[in-house]
Amino acid sequence: MMKTIKIKRIYDTKAEDDGYRILIDRLWPRGVSKKLAELDEWNKEVTPTPELRKWFAHDPEKFEEFKSLYQEELRDHKSELKRLKSIAASQNLTLLYAAKDPKINHAIILLDAIKKS
Fold first, then answer.
1. Which of 47, 52, 66, 94 is most exposed by smallest CB count within 10 Å?
2. In this structure, are residues 96 and 38 in contact, taking their beta carbons and an 8 Å threshold?
3. pLDDT tens, per residue, the chain with 117 residues
4. pLDDT for position 2
5. What pTM was estimated for this model as a whole?
6. 47, 66, 64, 46: which is closest to 56 by C-alpha?
7. Nearest partner of 41 among 91, 75, 78, 76, judged by Cα
8. What is the distance between the alpha carbons of residues 70 and 74, in angstroms, rounded to a whole number?
9. CB-hemisphere CA count at 13 Å for 82?
10. Are 111 and 94 in contact (CB under 8 A)?
């Protein structure tokens, strides 16, 4: 039985039920100290490539195409997705991201990919 996998901004306060906390951004978020982030892991492997991230630039009009391209990139990381899913099998898993928009970001896509792996 899988525990909860959730996404939240790195700027949000750590919650007791966060469980295993993973930063899923390639770049360290501005204004966040490594100590205060209280991470268990910083996983750059499952983030969008720098080229894709720069092309997308959080433009809502590009989101559907970004989603498709990022899903394609994630196909090369099946073992990593399964590892993350196995973490969620034993404890809550929180994927942390820095993007401002809670509806248009890569964390939503990654969450779905982990659940489907």
1. 52
2. no
3. 668 999 999 999 999 999 999 999 999 999 999 998 999 999 999 999 999 999 999 999 999 999 999 999 999 999 999 999 999 999 999 999 999 999 999 999 999 999 999
4. 66
5. 0.94
6. 66
7. 91
8. 6
9. 5
10. no
Which residues are paired to 96 by β-bridges?
Answer: 8, 23
Residue identified by tokens 């910083």 is 42
Query: Contact, 10 vs 26, CB < 8 A?
Result: no
- For residue 64, what is the enclosing H or E element? helix 63-74
Owner of token pair 């989101």: 63
User: What's the structural domain count of the chain?
Assistant: 1
Tokens of 87: 């973490």
pLDDT for 70 = 98
117 near 81, Cβ under 8 Å?
yes
Q: Are 104 and 66 in contact (CB under 8 A)?
A: no
